[in-house]
Design brief:
The structure is a homodimer.
Chain A: E1 2-5, H1 10-21, E2 27-30, H2 38-43, E3 51-53, E4 59-61, H3 63-73, H4 84-106, H5 109-118, H6 127-150, H7 162-176, H8 186-196, H9 202-206
Parallel strand pairs in A: 1-2
Antiparallel strand pairs in A: 1-3, 3-4
Helix pairs in contact in A: 1-3, 1-7, 4-6, 4-7, 6-8
């Protein structure tokens, strides 16, 4: 399997975790989607990553589609599983992270601080947007912590699910930028420790994003 | 079944079409999500519609989650079906409509022209955003038309799928506002005629959105 990806994309991180937690080996191909690349546009006319090319040469486009494809094709489920109401709770938390969190936090902090510079945008980071994003971030992390005081994993499952992988993908990139005040979010920190300890997470913790130094405790379990 | 919804939300329209095409009867409850409502926030802490309350009193939150819930729980599939690669193509087109189309078109045209006024926003519509949205809209509709020259339905299925329902939800609200130049998109027009003719679509075509007169041909098959 081959995954077209970009390291600073939380959606690519989610797809990588989902593949790895499903037991797949895969290679990565870097795609800078903001640079015009007709070859890649022929693969995905939306011009976005992640894109998965499977062993039998099927092209599966987009993070949601890749994850649902894994759910459909794998016998043993570690992403979305259980009775329909539990699966719905997993998907609710995934959508919370991928939609609401991205809209209220990712698009301000991650976009303004990292993506703009990666794209060599001439527009400087919008400090008001970053400030607003930080306020939202705190609210989101308090909600996650509130849930994790009541549940071991984000979607009330007994083992890791796609909800945890989605949340960890978004949180890890903000943590890379030193945006997470771990002392303020104890329950979340315990949860993130467990996620960080997984084998699937190891490649993300040693990866660096060109032009950005990771926060000192980004890659370690002592944070 | 009960669906919390708002008529100007394309995601609610999608959920309604999905329920109806799956053979479900359901009642609707209007929820103006921009007005504070603690009762609704207890149901969905994200404060968003659609939310489905099932016959056995399960709360299913969010358009994606509702649709995947229907896919998981129904024997006979009319939303996402076929071999995994076909299901992936259906989901790719659904994500295209719900993510890319919304980001590039909905958030400019629909938001600026309709949602802002519904929310009694003090900020006037941004005419530059609307203009940019119209340019993007044309590109999206040309892509849909290009696909429909090669396929009977958007995701290359032999009958309607969730991809068509998603596209029609977004397009119908822009058509309500008179934004679609049907003469420029012949293949799409033939497809929309077929979608409009379905029983599931009828309730949408007679619905009016307070403060907005529908375009003259919005509700008719002669457009």
């Amino acid at each position: 399997m081959l995954l077209y990806h970009y390291p600073a994309s939380p959606f690519c991180r989610k797809a990588r975790l989902a593949l790895s937690e499903s037991g797949y080996e895969f290679s990565l191909r870097l795609e800078k989607t903001w640079l015009p690349n007709p070859d890649f546009l022929r693969i995905n006319p939306a011009g976005e990553v992640p894109v998965l090319v499977t062993g039998d040469d099927k092209t599966i486009i987009g993070h949601q589609v890749i994850c649902e494809y894994l759910v459909e094709t794998l016998e043993e489920q570690s992403l979305i599983y259980g009775p329909p109401a539990q699966a719905a709770e997993i998907r609710r938390m995934v959508a919370w992270c991928d939609d609401k969190f991205v809209r209220e936090v990712g698009r301000s902090i991650l976009y303004e601080r990292m993506i703009k510079r990666l794209k060599s945008s001439a527009v400087p980071p919008d400090s008001r947007a970053i400030k607003a994003g930080r306020t939202h971030l705190d609210t989101h992390l308090l909600y996650f912590s509130w849930l994790l005081e009541r549940r071991q994993w984000l979607a009330a499952t007994t083992s890791i699910s796609l909800a945890d992988m989605a949340a960890a993908s978004h949180i890890s990139l903000l943590d890379y930028l030193g945006e997470i005040k771990w002392d303020r979010h104890k329950e979340l920190k315990l949860w993130y420790y467990r996620v960080k300890s997984r084998r699937s997470f190891a490649p993300l913790l040693t990866e660096t994003i060109p032009g950005f130094e990771p926060a000192p405790t980004y890659g370690t379990l002592d944070f």
